[in-house]
Design brief:
Layout: H1 6-27, H2 29-54, H3 62-108, H4 110-119, H5 123-135, H6 137-156, H7 158-161, H8 163-184, H9 189-230, H10 236-246, H11 252-267, H12 273-296, H13 304-358
Helix pairs in contact: 2-3, 2-8, 2-9, 3-6, 4-5, 8-9, 9-10, 9-12, 9-13, 10-11, 11-12
Amino acid sequence: MHIFDSRAARVLATICVFIAVGAFLYGIRRTLVIFLFAIFFAYLLEPLVTRIQSSPIGWRSRGLAIAETYIGVAALLSVLAIVFGPQLVADTKSLVSSLPGLLEKVASGNIVWQLGQKHGWSYETQVRIEQFISSHQQEIESWLARIGTDIAQFLANALWVALIPILAAFFLADGRRFAQVLIDSLDRGEERRLLRGIIVDLDQMLARFIFAQITLGAFSFIAYSVVLVLLKFPYALVLGLAGGMLEFIPVAGPLVAAAMILGVGFLMGFSPLWAVLIFLGVWRLCQDYVVSPRIYGRGLKLHPLAAIAAVLMGGELGGLLGVYLSIPIAAAIRIIWARWQDYSDSLDAAKDSRLAQLLPPPRKTVMR
């Protein structure tokens, strides 16, 4: 009887290696996320860099094209800041200054009487709503405290966000070289073809995903801002910008944007709130069933059920960031699985072909 089982030891060692790698990746998760968003930003600028590089102003220089792209993006952002910046800053300051008072009124229940008098609610309705708020005061206060903690954590990580364009410049300059070095590190030709196919598919998928996200976010920002400004909704530009940015978060982002807009309108006593509600419903239908399918096309090739499951699991594992990254990660898993299936089928076919060559040919039977 052998006390030491080499097979069990190898399995145990493999499990320990996976656990150690998982713990290491979890420990550096913030750095990995920054690098991942830098890759997304590089994919966003890649078409513009390529076009400038092939134009006369690019002089066929990749570095010069990247520098000119960054200068052009900075100039465009500066123009937008000059045109829309003053009104956006004023709305933001006004909203930030009035938000604590509104939230305090919500937590105390005083907002009920203020809105009830403005909208003509009955006394019984106001008392019933105030009692409901009073019975859930602790939950409301904890929710408000959690929002404040999330905002403080986001501001603390703002410095890391400044690294994204810097890292993206390196990916734009040497991204193809990094991929080729990774492919050349493999010995077998079949493995190189597998990895090259995966990298090509991932490159196309991420390019389509980033383009679709930017386009959908821009459409939402324009739609929210124009409609809210025409309706003379309070803080229209700020809410429009927030709605466009939340469009980057699949499924949950548009719901949060709608709840935020309706919540601000309700707390500020905006009278034609039904018009905003109708617009949000119509826009959601247009965005989900008309605009999104045409922009995404078949680039991600994800079934809607798989996309919803990925969003739910991403939210459970990684919160808001997991929700955002769930769709490209699910699409990447589908690509890797499909390529691996093709690779396995080709290996099996090659084995069958070699086996057929080694076997002797069947004997011919002579009919007497």
